[in-house]
Amino acid sequence: MSVVPPSALGEPCVLLKLGEVVLKGRNRELFERQLQANIKAALKGFGVKVDVRQRHGVIAILLPEGTGVETADAIAERLTDVIGLVWVHRAWRVAKNPEAVTAAALELVAGRPEVERRATFAVRSRRRDKRFPLRSNELDRMVGGEINDKYGLPVRLKNPELTVNIEVDRDEVFVFTDGLPGQGGLPVGTSGRGLVLMSGGIDSPVAAYRMLRRGLQVDFLHFSGIPFTTSESIYKAYALVRALSKFQGNARLFVVPFGKAQQSLKASGADRLQVVAQRRLMLKTAEEVAHRLRRNVLVTGDSLGQVSSQTLQNITALDDAVELPILRPLIGMDKTEIMAEARRIGTLQISELPDEDCCTLLTPRRAETAAKIADLRQIEKRLDAEELAVQLADSIQEYKLDGTPAAVRRSPKAADAPNAADAAPAADDAPAVDAAPAAPAAV
Ligand code: ATP
Ligand code: MG
To answer: For the THUMP domain, which residue ranges apply (predicted)?
Structure first.
């Protein structure tokens, strides 16, 4: 038994541990199906035909025979971004008998740096198939004894430096050492569809990520100060949405040229209410766009008290602007916490690039911290804000994330849309983001 054949490790595969999905009751299957679809979508780019097998509490990704270790490692790495998984293990799939398992475990340990430094180790077995001839603790002892005999590593059950995991499944046994932490959360697409108001700042991408992790599938709406600002904020929104696309496929980015509407607000005497009035008009426009796209919730990156537009009274005034619910996942978070999360998910660097945000246009010297809803409504009445929101929604342009020009999908008033070329950022004034948006098209 201690003779290790060269193929003792069997086939490389990836074993996934599910998060909250396992707590689901009757509709668990629905969550599992969505998760499987998301996994397959995430792996499309690899050109490898994967076999996704749902087992009790885990998913096994079986790879075609002959798949190299490097490809298997890359697939595991990619799956750490798929929401709904708590652990991703690059495992080996071996025949379902104690001898094969022991041989695989020995070979797995052989290549480890812990052997040379005589690190402590433990074997942890688990049987999902109780028909296996050895019980978990018997398997632990048997494999542990062999590793100890062969390499002289001391066993330590509490906090070992190296853990050999053995999981006995229905058709095979999985053997692996470390794992990569996953994103946790619920599979994207299991909680409906929303529209994120995406600025170029730090908060909104984190808000989007937080909602993705609760299963919401999202599209993005960005308001640019065009024609009074450059296109930089569009580039940032585009780069941010692209950065988030590793967590969710098929997201769409829409951009509203908002500068002229901001000017109209100012002309109608918004004064100290300019910022809150702008935010209300953004929400009204977003609501109209959401209806057209069949999205039933809006998401913003508001955090209570962060800036003057986000006092409790102002947030209440924002809620009054629309009927759709507004989700604010960052409402109780500190800026430092939000920044740490932005760094972890890879959006901070992009958000910190300089840009001309539309919100800084026409900002009054002293902004109102306790906006009265009646005053805001009066400004909006003078302006016919509802009609303006419809016009703004008519003028949205989609920026395709895959680099192809956006298809014109629905264009009731396409003729009113500004010339795409006016808004399309020119390649040479692009900030240092990794991809430039394709030319937009009216939607
Ligand atoms: P930061 O606070 O880091 O600048 P932010 O995204 O939170 O970024 P705020 O000015 O605090 O920006 O705006 C609060 C929220 O309003 C944003 O999280 C976003 O949801 C929405 N918002 C603000 N400006 C825009 C914009 N130009 N386009 C789309 N949404 C916006
Ligand atoms: Mg903010």
So the answer is: 73-179
Contact yes or no for 198/222 (Cβ under 8 A) = yes
- 3-state DSSP assignment of residue 313: helix
> Mean pLDDT of all residues in the chain?
88
**Is any atom of ligand 1 closer than 6 Å to the C-beta of 229?**
no
Domains 7-181 and 193-429 share a fold: no
Query: What is the CA(294)–ligand 2 centre distance, in A?
Result: 26
Q: Is 197 annotated as a binding residue?
A: yes
| Secondary structure letter of residue 76 according to DSSP | H
Cβ of 347 closer than 6 Å to ligand 1, yes or no, is no
Pairing verdict, β 58-62 and 51-55: antiparallel
Q: Do 305 and 334 meet the contact criterion of CB atoms below 8 Å apart?
A: no
**Cα 337 to ligand 2 centre (Å):** 13
404, with CB counted inside 10 A (0-12, 13-18, 19+), is: exposed
pLDDT at position 354 is 85
pLDDT digits (tens, 9 = 90+) for 335-393: 999 999 999 999 999 999 987 776 666 777 777 788 899 999 999 999 999 999 999 99
Instruction: Please identify, in words, the CATH class of the domain defined by 193-429.
Output: alpha beta
**What 3-state DSSP class applies to 162?**
strand
Cα of 204 from ligand 1 centre, angstroms: 6
Q: SS3 helix, strand, coil % of the chain, rounded to 5?
A: 40, 20, 40
Residue located nearest, by CA, to atom 4 of ligand 1: 201
Whether residue 124 contacts residue 163, with contact meaning beta carbons closer than 8 Å, is answered with yes
- Residue pair 436/425 in contact (Cβ under 8 Å)? The answer is yes
CATH 3.30.2130.30 fits 7-181, yes or no: yes
Q: What is the pTM of this model?
A: 0.89
Closest ligand, as measured to the CA of 301: 1
DSSP 8-state symbol, 207: H
Q: For residues 275-287, b (16+ Cβ closer than 10 Å) or e, as one string?
A: bbbbbbbbbbbbb
Q: Which of 197, 199, 399 to mutate to test the pocket of ligand 1 (most atoms within 8 A of CB)?
A: 199
Instruction: Give distance in angstroms: CA of 201 to centre of ligand 1.
Output: 6
User: Alpha-carbon distance 175 to 96, whole Å?
Assistant: 11
Take residue 305 and report the two structure tokens written for it: 């008290």
Name the CA radius of gyration of the chain, rounded. 27
CB distance 110 to 75 below 8 Å: no
Domain ranges of the chain: 7-181, 193-429
